Every structure is written in structure tokens, then in C-alpha cells.
## 1
Amino acid sequence: MAAFRSAVITFPGSNCDRDMAVAIEQICGGEVLRVWHGDAALPDKLDFIALPGGFSYGDYLRSGAMAARSPVMQAVVEAANRGMPVLGVCNGFQVLTEAGLLPGALLRNAGMNFVCREIALTVETSQSLFTAGYSQGQQITIPVAHHDGNYFADAATLDRIEGEGRVAFRYAEEVNGSARQIAGVLNSAGNVLGMMPHPERMIEAAQGGSDGRALFQSVIEGLVAA
Amino acid sequence: MKVRVTISLKNGVLDPQGRAIHHAIEGLGIHGVQDVRAGKLIELEVDDSVSDADLETMCKQLLANMVIENYRIERVPVQDSVQETV
């Protein structure tokens, strides 16, 4: 594989884009390009796209709703449909559901409060590009920071994604009222992952832990092996 | 032409905001309110060239998230708009 090339998309109101870029740079290496929401096209020869956390467009209308219709997202949707690996964290997860790349929606937290703390997560599958570096059932600690993280989908959709092994992570404790404690979901092809917890904030001891590293390691190792 | 779009959460979708409002109403000392559901009202000023199909497209693709919300479109006479009645 040629040098790893990734893109981090910045929307007006994104605030975890730098953290995401640093995590990818440190763990995956290669070139991390920063892409603005108004760009109509993505850079050439990308291997990986990340949608960061934040409050894109001030969460107007619904979290992620405006960002999902921004010019660059049309290019991201096309790339994802061609098989490009796409990771959306927190607001990035909300954008992916609003863009129709992932099922369900993220509602206001059931407890009404903004939740900002380290939480325990269970890795539900190691059979994905993003989670191959974890073992199934492994418990990890990753921070969350969100107001709208309450995952919702109808029962049939929940049964389907569970049956297809598309729940990547589940909260090991009550956090926000999410259906079946779902914290992260894969698309049917397995190349798109959305998750509310922030793996990019847990990549070295100085941040209190490094349980997020394996996610980025999985991506780079999976792509190099491919 | 004024168009009023009312967005409401589907039945079965938890509404923490509605619950908080309900709690605050009880704080006013008014009891007997059975349930509160909060939604959104979006008023659009549109040309005659905007068709019903255009309005449906707007609602389905942007104004409402069909996973969790319903929408209702009303074409309202101008004198009946919110601004006029305030």
C-alpha cells in the first residue's frame, strides 16, 4: 500500500477535529488532510475518512442534520458507498445517521443532562475493520461527552443490526438511555462505524488511558493487510 | 404563501424535553396535565412555484428525520400566520 492518506472533515462547530487528526497521525501515520465542509470534492487517493465530534452548525434543526447536507458529505456518502472506511465519532455519528449511512437516530439523552465522563464499553464484535484489534467481550474505558447520544431505532431495525453483528460497542453501564445500550454501530458492508464515545481522547497514558488506540491500529493494520 | 410545517416525535419515541416541561408545569401548581410532547414549528414563505411535492421533499429530506419524527404541512392564509396573530 502507498503512504496512508486520511481526511478529517471539519464542519463549522466541529471541536474534536484536531484531536482526531492527532490520533490518526500518531497511530496510523501517513498524511492526514484537513477537509472543510464546503469542499465539493474529497482529496484524491484517500484510504480513510473521519468525521469528528463537536456541534456542527450549532446543532440547528437536529444534531448532525445540517452537516449531513453539506457539500462535502455528498462526496463522503459516495466514497462510503464505494467501500471507503469512514469513522464518525460523537457528532460524526449523528452526521452519519442523518446522512443515511447508518440506521437509527441519536435523541436527547434520556436523563436530559449532558453526559461527560469516562464510561465502560463492551466490545461486541472483533469481526470488523475498526475492532479487529480488540477481543469480543473485552471491556474498555473511553470517555463520552454528549447531549444527544440516546440511540434509537425501531425494534425490527435493532433486531436486524444485532443479528448481523453490526453492534460494535455497547455501554457496560447506563449512560444516556440508548436502545439496548448501543454505543456504536456498523453499516451492512462494515466499512462505516459510528460511535458516541471518543476513542481519539484515549490514546496515551497522559489522557488517562489508551483503550482507544486499538481502534486506529485496527484500521491501519486492516488496510495494510488488504 | 405561508406554509406551516409542524414536526412532532413519533409515538414511542422518548421525549425528555416534553417530560421536563411536564415537570415544570406541575411546578406551577397546575395538575391534571396527562402528558407533554414537544415538537417544532417551521414557517416558510414560499412562491407559488413551490409545489406540494417540493414541500414533501423538504420535509422528508431535511426538516424532519423520518426515523423519529412525523410532519404535517399546512398552507395557511397570511393573516393567520404566527406573526400576524401575535
## 2
Amino acid sequence: MIINHPLLGPRDASEFVYLGDESLINRPDPNSEDADDRFYEYGYLRDNPAGDLRELWYHEQGDRSWLVVTRNTLTHEITSVEMARDVAKAKGRDK
Amino acid sequence: MGEFTLKAEPFLDRYERDFGSVSIKELHQQAIVSFAIPNGCETKAEKTLNKVFGVACPKVGNSVLSKDGSARLMRLGADQLFCLLSNQQDTHSAHLVMNQKFGQDIYTTDQSDVWVCVEVSGTQTRKALERICAIDLHPDHFTIASIARTTMEHLGTIILRSAENTYVLLSASSSANSFLHALETSVENTM
């Protein structure tokens, strides 16, 4: 499987480490009133779609960047690759 | 207590060998300094690098020689560069010198003892490397001065194409002999 890195171009999937659902970017606020419930959801509950899934991949044997990869779980087709830092910044995070 | 000093020796004992159309040579007395760009300070850091080295900061996946030719800047990622300095008697002081020049614009760390540095050259070099390298080394794609951080035989490697048929490879010093063995085997298999 080839992942088309936004900065480096096509790279073999063996250079990457898979983490999981992109929603892990959205770490809950530990000071909120329902923090316990939110962290339970954050840590344990995942969607398992048959189709497109946005996932976090780490380029460990490359530039050490985190990517958000949109992959079809049925066909393994990759339709989009974004820098996770850009995705996080678009959500209002500072890094 | 006796007085003595420790002197670092090259990881591959100054290895140098010709295989006919391919030569492998350990490059020692190389100082390697990592530059980390603080989040949000990319423009400022690039201006500082331009001022110190006299050249524009390379794009990710590229390298450039400093104006005086003494240092090569390799852009490994959006926020990290490696600086390769040749013929250094004291490899560990290089990062302190850089640190003084950069101030808080760029963070530096000494990487000289972390990496073994090997030069592979000769007309058949690409043939030998492409068997074990995970990236496309075709000259139209991996042009002169290109760099990449990737794997060779599962070992993490930074590869630089320094000339038409010359490549500089950096890999972990702790597995230097395994890395050399992988290179030698691939060269022998393509002779």
C-alpha cells in the first residue's frame, strides 16, 4: 500500500505506524463537568464503518509527521492524505 | 586517579572498499547537528538560516550547501533540518557554535555520535541501492541534492544524493555493522 505524503510524495506503508481513528485528535477538556464520560468515549468508543474512515498514521521511518489518511476499509483505497497538524489547526488547535 | 582522555573512533574503523564499479567509504570527522524549528516560527527560522549560511533554506526533501561550502543543510521535515559539517576535529562543539548563532530562533542538538555516515559511489551505485531502499531512486525523481528519510533493509536511513553517482547514507551508529553488511551484500548481488 502506498501513502501519498503531502510533503514527501508516495511512500510505502511499511514506513508508517497506524494509530487509529482521527477522532483521537479531539482530546476532551479535562476540566469540563462531564470529563469522565468524555474520556471514556475518547478512550474506548470507536465507529467501525464499512467504507471511508479517517485514520491517524505516523511516519516513523520518515519525517516523523502525523498524517490523517482517509482510507476505504473495504477496498483499502486511499482518497485523501493530510498533515494532522493542519487538520488540528483547522479545528482551532494551536499545534 | 590516573589522568587520561577518551578519543572517539569511527564506528566502522575508517572502512573503505572498492567493489569494481561501486565504492563504499565511511565518512568520519563529520559533525551532525539537528535543527528544530519552534512551532509558528518557520519564517523567522528560515531568515536566520539564510543569514548564517548565506543560502535559502531548502524545501522538505532537499538539501543545499552553505555559501562557503562547509555545511550541508538537509530539510528532513517541516520543522526539522540536519546540518552536516565535514572535516571537524571536534564534532561535539559544532552544535554549541550553532546554538550561539541561532539564539532562540532554532533549537540545536548534537547528533554526531548517533549516526554512522557512509558514502557509496560509482556507476552501479543506484543498481545496488534500489534493491534495499524503500523510495524511488530514479534520477528523474531523486535528483542531485535530494534527501529522504526512509528505510534500507528495515534499518532507518537518511539518504542524500550528493552527485550524479554518489550517495551519502546516514544510519544508526548502534547498528552500523549491520547496515554495512546490508550494503555490501546488495553491492555484491548486483556485480
